[in-house]
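Listing S7. Sequence submitted for prediction.
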Amino acid sequence: MPFDDLRNLASRQFGLFTATQASKYGVHRSRLHALLRKNELRLVRRGIYAFEVFAPDAHEELRAAWLALDPGKTVAERLQDDECAVVATASASYLHGLGNFTSHSHEFFVPVRKQSRAEDVHIRRRVLPASDIEVVEGMKVTSVTRTVVDLLADGEELEHIGDLLMGAVKKGAKLDWVRIKQSAQDVEKVYGLTSSEIFNQLSDFRGASLEDRLAYAYAVRSALDPQWHKSFQEQMSKTLQGLASLQATVSSNVVPLMGQFQQVLDEALEPVLREMKKISATGMTCEETEDEQSD
């Protein structure tokens, strides 16, 4: 039956379908309106419906906006279509579950000219290489690296982009740090800062734990400078070996000493963190840094 076929289609599209798709299955608007009155359907946005048996999730509004851009095509067809709209910028960060950006629009990139009458949809024409596109939650979305690059180009707050990067590191997301650093150079006029200052602000996590800051610095430098990667491991190994002997002397019954141990840990690692931040900002190798210090 046409209605069963439509339900099966919706089950492969997050519970959603378009009025155009319904018409193709012989289910016309009058029938849809009747089902709405019976509470068997939900109207998610103009021309986009959901079966009540499919519970909404956090991405339903974004998915509905994505479907509405090309209502005749199924999700499966869109994922094979090079001209399919790609979720971008703040909407992409939301879909990746990273950052905390406030946007009143659903943001999309398309390779060909496309318009929408919806006030909450923002479309920009961008031709993206395949390497900049991923499929997340069943939708095409810009990669985390490309999302960062676009947010920098848009002049978004560096603190928020930094939070996105920290979240990406904690989730183990793939990041192209060389490209991100190059983007910092490209947007100096946007922020009125040098690329080093931009990169420093992206790496300023005063409220983050020591563990998270180390993980972030480690990710940055292991990607930009393989030689530093080895140096970092050696420095941290020596530091932790020294701290291990102190930790071994702390009895579980002597609670006050735990605060003292944490203070020693912070003081021991802070110079390492400062040096990592300096190297990250300048892009110098360890050898170059040591040469400058000896002059």
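Caption to Listing S7: primary sequence and predicted structure tokens for the chain studied. Residues 7 and 61 are 19 Å apart (CA to CA). The mean pLDDT is 82.
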